[in-house]
């Protein structure tokens, strides 16, 4: 057990970094509860956290995108290779997500289910679900471009969830769950990495400063509505160092050297600096002593993991690609390799490289076609046209076939979803 003596403890441990949200969001309540999973964190006797309820993007998408019509999916290998049974579930991860880890640390349950999972059971609802959708953002244009679930739609799903809870456990218990649960809001990285920098439609209207203002307003309005529906303990994640994502290093860091794109990271830092100020202002306006609005920094821990990997027992085995692998059992992400050819002795190919080459070409073609279109009156028109062009260009790349015939071919599961996910 890891006892908690203060709601704002922090740690430099690579393990507890993943669970900093669970430490930051421990708030005092007046009742107790029992849980079915053994907690790794020992809560004070007068604190209860009945559920973890999650909104946002691919960081906490537990599989909702499996059940909507979008390119942004990851229900294929190598995703899920370290998950139970080694099966892809729609989580944008090799294993569990931060939402799963937090629920398990708090002793609530081992896994947070996706709200749209067709196998979701009523008994799962009182302990929390995820409404998150990979590639969404605070900017309404971000989910619209790739046809994923917007935060407005996630809020509507949450309202439906509340109604289902009331039908199951009654209004009094529902209000207790809403008041005492932890809420995570994880978005913003896709707004910057995709909508602003990669696709660029918002650069027609905003500079980085004004665009991050738009993002922060979206975050603040979302948190305010959550509070109006009964939420008290709300944690808002900052943006990650998006310039160090594999896709953004390729697109913005130089094709040959693939450095972290510093202007992308600077934009993320600007957004992150504004979020806690907005949350503080919102907290003052709520006039609610029980409300806890917490900013959760993921930028600096992740950047530290990249820049000082040796502290976390990680080693870069390929400096050109910047791969981080565990050497002492510490969990880390790696760019997996799978064979995409039919030849028996074919060399593995990095999925990332293939996907990035294709998505870069598609985006280039789509932007060129969209920019030549006539009758565009606004950035919304451009976004719609760009989406149409990307859909029109969804054809297999030359040299690969998905019909199962002999020769070089792309596995069906590896196409076309990974091409867009790597922008997430």
TrEMBL record:
Indicate, by first and last residue, each region the UniProt record lists as having compositional bias (Low complexity): 397-407
User: Is Signal included in the keywords of this UniProt record?
Assistant: yes
What domain of life does the native source organism fall in? Eukaryota
Keywords, A to Z, come to: Signal
Q: Show the segment(s) annotated as Disordered.
A: 388-413
For this chain, one GO molecular function annotation is: hydrolase activity, acting on ester bonds
InterPro entries on file: GDSL, GDSL_lipolytic_enzyme, SGNH_hydro_sf, SGNH_plant_lipase-like
Q: Where is the signal peptide?
A: 1-33
Q: Which family does it belong to?
A: Belongs to the 'GDSL' lipolytic enzyme family.
Q: What is this protein called?
A: GDSL esterase/lipase EXL3
Give the organism the record lists: Rhododendron griersonianum
Q: What is the lineage of its organism?
A: Eukaryota, Viridiplantae, Streptophyta, Embryophyta, Tracheophyta
């Amino acid at each position: 057990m890891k006892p908690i003596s203060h709601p704002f403890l922090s740690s430099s441990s690579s393990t507890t970094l993943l669970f900093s949200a669970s430490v930051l969001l421990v708030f005092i309540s007046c009742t107790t509860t029992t849980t079915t999973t053994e907690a790794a964190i020992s809560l004070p006797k007068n604190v209860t956290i009945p559920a973890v309820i999650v909104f946002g993007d691919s960081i906490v998408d537990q599989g909702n995108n499996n059940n909507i019509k979008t390119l942004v999916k990851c229900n294929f290998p190598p995703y899920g290779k370290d998950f139970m049974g080694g099966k892809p579930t729609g989580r944008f991860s090799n294993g569990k997500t931060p939402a799963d880890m937090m629920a398990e640390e708090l002793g609530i349950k081992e896994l947070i289910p996706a709200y749209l999972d067709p196998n979701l059971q009523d008994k799962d609802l009182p302990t929390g679900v995820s409404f998150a959708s990979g590639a969404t953002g605070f900017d309404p244009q971000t989910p619209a471009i790739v046809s994923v679930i917007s935060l407005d739609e996630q809020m509507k799903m949450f309202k439906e969830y509340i109604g289902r809870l009331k039908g199951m456990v009654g209004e009094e218990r529902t209000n207790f769950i809403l008041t005492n649960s932890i809420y995570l809001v994880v978005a913003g990285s896709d707004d910057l990495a995709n909508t602003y920098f990669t696709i660029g439609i918002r650069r027609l209207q905003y500079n980085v400063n004004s665009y991050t203002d738009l993002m922060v307003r979206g975050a603040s309005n979302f948190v305010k509505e959550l509070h109006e529906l009964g939420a008290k303990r709300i944690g808002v994640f900052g943006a990650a160092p998006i310039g160090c994502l594999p896709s953004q290093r390729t697109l913005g860091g130089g094709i040959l050297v693939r450095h972290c794109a510093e202007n992308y990271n600077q934009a993320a830092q600007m957004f992150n600096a504004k979020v806690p100020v907005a949350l503080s202002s919102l907290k003052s306006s709520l006039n609610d002593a029980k409300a806890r609005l917490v900013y959760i920094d993921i930028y600096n821990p992740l950047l530290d993991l990249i820049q000082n990997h040796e502290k976390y027992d990680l080693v870069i085995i390929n400096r050109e690609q910047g791969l981080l692998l565990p050497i002492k059992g510490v969990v880390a992400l790696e760019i997996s390799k799978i064979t995409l050819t039919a030849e028996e002795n074919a060399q593995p190919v990095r999925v990332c490289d293939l996907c990035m080459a294709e998505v870069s070409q598609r985006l280039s073609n789509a932007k060129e076609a969209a920019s030549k279109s006539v009758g565009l009156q606004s950035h919304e028109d451009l976004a719609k046209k760009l989406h149409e062009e990307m859909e029109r260009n969804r054809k297999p790349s030359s040299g690969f076939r998905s019909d199962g015939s002999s020769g070089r071919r792309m596995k069906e599961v590896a196409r076309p979803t990974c091409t867009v996910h790597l922008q997430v």
